[in-house]
């Protein structure tokens, strides 16, 4: 009976596992292992054949046995055979084409997912190799060119307002879930898998974060996070690749769909940094995270960015002053919504800053906050005045009121006289009352100084207006010479 069962399996070479590995490496898009280094197919290989099952063989693909129908010793061989079957690719732009074969592949992918989810045997090197090859073909779209839908041709579709959803998602979702379970499986030995889940493999995953499909980005986020946790040797490379994506986004393209997801990964990574922070991590904060406040699309990823920056300042509060300087450098002047975001992040940073670092930045900081208080956009003015509701910030202000009050009070007085929004007026009066309760004498002195300055400014304006009137009168008395006329308004 077992002979009949095994005879139905795909033919297996009688050679050893090492020979099986060489067999998998043969043909186009091969994976070389001769020097201990694995190079998967590159984009230049897109014109190559499909590999295990060329398109002309799709019609003759037959289902393989279920895992429960073979002995334990043959399950890994069946696993490799099913992976090879899933290397067949289809054109999903035509839903009426190869429907039976597509369904067979979907069912096979589900079988593979179930197999890796329920305590599989230790994965052999050929099994890991076959898994990575299947991922390269299906997920990384290295080849062939007809696998991707024609709707993904950017030359034909320049509308970026709506996300593009891959018609092959019914297969891709299962393949992503399979890869996540495979990477997470205790049966996967890290030392062996590092040979195949290498830098090129990780780079392909990070490249896919630019996908327009949010479902795909969520899958990639879970996979990359798990790889980062399991493969410690790859951690510096992953951080470097993510940094490069951020650099390209900020300083070159300002177009990338996966910034929020990559920041979410990095936010969880920062929580695991050891203290004191390495210089590499500080450089990443200064050169990558802080400049990410510059792009116009900040609102898309602001929550994740703010969380990452806050994690740095909580880990090492001395960084707070550098972060505040960076925010002031990239402060939006004409974008009110971004100003509100900056003020929100600023409040979180001020909650962890120490007194010495605060005194280093308080003069330029409250100069900017004073301008926000005077903003005619009521949300900006409100958000700036809400800072006084935070007890930690109020404590910092109280200890440095002799420096801060002369900077802020003119803005409060100007608001009280001119601002159009009633809510802003009420908040202004509340803040002024707080200052009075802190130090009434200082408030009176600052008000007196403010009024003197206003009188000087008004006097200068009057003198300037009088000088213009004298010039106008002198111009009116001048005779018209020839055809030359002087128009005085």
Write structural notes for this entry.
It is a single chain. With 489 residues, the protein is an all-alpha fold. The protein has a domain at 1-148 and 167-197. It has 21 helices and no strands. Helix 6 (169-184) runs parallel beside helix 9. Residues 1-60 and 143-160 have low confidence and may be disordered.
Summarize this entry quickly.
It is built from 21 helices and no strands. It is mostly helical. Helix 6 packs parallel to helix 9, helix 11 packs parallel to helix 13 and helix 17 runs parallel beside helix 20.
Topology:
Blueprint: H1 2-7, H2 17-24, H3 75-85, H4 99-117, H5 125-138, H6 169-184, H7 190-193, H8 199-207, H9 214-230, H10 235-253, H11 259-270, H12 279-289, H13 298-315, H14 320-329, H15 336-350, H16 355-373, H17 378-385, H18 391-399, H19 401-418, H20 422-438, H21 440-477
Helix pairs in contact: 2-5, 3-4, 3-5, 4-6, 6-9, 8-10, 9-11, 10-12, 11-13, 13-15, 14-15, 14-16, 15-17, 16-17, 16-19, 17-20, 18-19, 19-20, 19-21, 20-21
Number of helical segments?
Answer: 21
- Please tell me how large the radius of gyration is: 33 Å
Structural class: mainly alpha
Taking all residues together, what is the mean pLDDT? 81
β-strand amount: under 5%
Strand/helix succession:
HHHHHHHHHHHHHHHHHHHHH
Low-confidence stretches: 1-60, 143-160
Question: Helix content range of the residues, please?
Answer: 55-70%
Largest sheet: none
Amino-to-carboxy terminus distance: 110 Å
């Amino acid at each position: 009976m077992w002979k009949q069962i095994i005879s139905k399996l795909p033919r297996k070479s009688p050679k050893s596992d090492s020979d099986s590995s060489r067999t998998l490496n043969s043909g186009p898009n091969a994976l070389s292992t001769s020097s201990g280094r694995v190079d998967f197919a590159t984009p230049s290989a897109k014109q190559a054949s499909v590999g295990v099952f060329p398109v002309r063989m799709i019609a003759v693909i037959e289902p393989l046995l279920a895992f429960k129908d073979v002995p334990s010793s043959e399950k890994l061989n069946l696993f490799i055979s099913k992976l090879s079957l899933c290397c067949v690719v289809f054109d999903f732009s035509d839903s009426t084409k190869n429907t039976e074969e597509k369904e067979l592949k979907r069912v096979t992918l589900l079988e593979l997912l179930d197999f890796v989810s329920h305590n599989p045997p230790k994965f052999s090197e050929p099994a890991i190799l076959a898994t990575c090859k299947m991922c390269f073909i299906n997920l990384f779209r290295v080849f062939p060119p007809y696998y991707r839908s024609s709707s993904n041709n950017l030359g034909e579709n320049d509308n970026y307002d709506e996300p593009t959803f891959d018609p092959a998602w019914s297969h891709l979702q299962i393949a992503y879930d399979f890869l996540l379970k495979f990477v997470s499986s205790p049966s996967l030995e890290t030392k062996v898998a590092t040979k195949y889940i290498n830098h090129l493999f990780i780079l392909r995953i990070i490249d896919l974060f630019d996908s327009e499909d949010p479902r795909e980005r969520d899958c990639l986020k879970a996979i990359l996070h798990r790889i980062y946790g399991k493969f410690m040797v790859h951690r510096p490379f992953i951080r470097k690749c993510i940094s490069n994506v951020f650099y390209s986004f900020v300083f070159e393209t300002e177009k990338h769909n996966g910034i929020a997801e990559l920041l979410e990964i990095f936010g969880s990574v920062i929580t695991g940094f050891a203290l004191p922070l390495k210089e590499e991590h500080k450089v990443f904060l200064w050169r990558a995270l802080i400049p990410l406040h510059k792009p116009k699309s900040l609102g898309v990823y602001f929550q994740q960015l703010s969380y990452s920056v806050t994690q740095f300042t909580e880990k090492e509060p001395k960084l707070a002053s550098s972060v505040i300087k960076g925010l002031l450098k990239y402060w939006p002047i004409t974008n009110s919504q971004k100003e509100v975001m900056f003020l929100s992040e600023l409040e979180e940073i001020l909650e962890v800053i120490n007194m010495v670092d605060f005194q280093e930045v308080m003069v330029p900081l409250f100069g900017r906050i004073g301008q926000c208080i005077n903003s005619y956009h009521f949300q900006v003015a409100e958000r700036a005045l809400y800072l006084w509701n935070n007890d930690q910030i109020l404590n910092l202000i109280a200890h440095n009121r002799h420096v801060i009050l002369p900077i802020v009070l003119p803005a409060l007085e100007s608001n009280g006289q001119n601002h159009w929004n009633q809510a802003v007026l009420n908040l202004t009066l509340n803040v002024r009352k707080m200052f009075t309760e802190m130090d009434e004498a200082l408030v009176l002195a600052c008000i007196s100084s403010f009024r003197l300055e206003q009188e000087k400014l008004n006097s200068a304006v009057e003198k300037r207006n009088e000088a213009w009137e004298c010039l106008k009168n002198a111009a009116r008395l001048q005779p018209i010479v020839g055809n030359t006329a002087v128009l005085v308004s």
